[in-house]
Structures are given as structure tokens and as C-alpha cells.
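Page 47, continued from p. 46.
Same chain as before, 289 aa.
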Amino acid sequence: MKISKEIKVGLLVIFSSFILYIGFNFLKGNEVFSSNNIYYTIYSNSAGLNLSNPILINGFSVGSVKDIKILKDRNYSILVVFEVKKDIIINKKTIAKLITSDLLGSRAIELIISKKGASLNNHDTILGDIEQSLKDVFISSTAPVIDDINITVRLINNFINKISNSKINLIFYNIREITSNLKSIIFINKNNINVTVSNIAKISNILANKENGISFFLSELNKSVNKLNLIFDKKNKGTLIQLIYDESIYYNFNKVLIDLDKILVDFKKNPNRYVSFSIFGKNDKNLKK
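Result:
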């Protein structure tokens, strides 16, 4: 049995239309032979929601947006039609929350499942809610800061307006005068400052040099202490009994004390002989004597 060309062309057209229908729905994200449940929700603003945007439960995709319509008779609200897998049980108190799924601003619907209430049937309506976008969060968080900045700017402007130009000029004039006076004081006392620094260096040299007065005083004091140690040294069999009965030990001990006393008296009467410096740059006449 031969098939006519007309029948062949008709079958080809039907098959091509079927393939076109399946491909078109596939590109739209629709499943032609889907057994998913269809639900509806209404928003006051779709906020960038598009077809095929995902339906999420705890971040996991369970469906997609099928259709978006505008309701003119309900103050131009947005009707969203979406499908969810048939094994997902949705209750009456479930909320379809429109959220931002990433930093790029992509939109999705998050189903907040409630354990209370009866289960919804296919083609039932779910209560809708809209999450604040990143833009709204940024504006709400920065608004107080911007208000504070505006208040601060107004206060500064009021302060500047109250200050006349003559007062501002007087302030800068006083600053210049203070700077000029400080330079003059430093220039006048430059020599004194140099002398003071030089004398401080001399003090450091005296303390560090072993041949100066302080070193000599300490050396003499150390010699006296060593003599006392020799008196009580065990090698010399020095005891308190010998100190009492031995006249030579008593004599040596007394001589050490007299020498030590002379050093202390001389140090008190002539301190410049041991420590010689001048903060104000005078000549060290006593040292030369």
C-alpha cells in the first residue's frame, strides 16, 4: 500500500509541530509531560522575577516559575504560577517568599514550609511575601549615617557662618606670630643650647673616664674597704679577739678609718675636685687649681 505524498507531508508537519512545541517549552523551562503540582501566589511587586526562576526549599530546587501575569482588577498585583514536585507536601500556612538568591540580584521563591494546617491541593494559592533586596538593606542601613553626616555638615556651616572673616584672619595672624616668636627664641638661645648640650656630653665623659674625679674617689674608697677586708681576712687570722688585744691591728684599723674620714671631709668641702661640670658654660677654675 502506497502512502500518498499528501499524507507524508501532513505527518511531517504534525511531527515537526510536536517537536517544536516540546523544544519551545523546554527552552522556557517547562516540562511537557510533567506530573508536578501547580500553585499560585500573589505579590505586590515581582521585583525582577522571571520565568524558569527556581522554587527553593532550604536552598534546594524543587520546581520553577511557569508563568507571571499582572492582575489589573487587583491594583495591578502580580500573579505567579509555579510548579513543585508532586512528592513535596505543602500546607496551608506555607509562605512563598520572594528572595534574592545571589549577589548578582537573581530572584527565586523560597517556600517556608509549615508543619501546621491541612495540605494544599493542586492549583491552590499560597500566601506570598517579599524579602528586602540588597539595595533596600543598604539604603535602610546607611540612611542613619547619611542623616548624621548632614547634621554635622549643617553644624559646621552654622559655625563658619558665625565666625567673621576678620576673626579667621586674626587666628591665622596669631599662628604666624607664635611661629615667628618661636623661631626668634631658638635663634637667640642657639649658643646656650649648644653649650648645654656640650656640658651634658662632658658629664657623660666624666662618668665614663676612669681618670676623672669620680673614678678617683671611688678608687680611694675601694682601697679603704680592701684594707678593712685584709684586717678581717682569715688568712691573716684576724679575729675580734685580736682586734681587741693586738695593738698593730687596732692601729691599722684606726688608720683606715681616719683615711676614709679625710676623704669624705675633703669630698664635702671640695666637690669640684672630684666632680667638675657646669651647665651654664662657666670656666672650671676650681678644677684647674
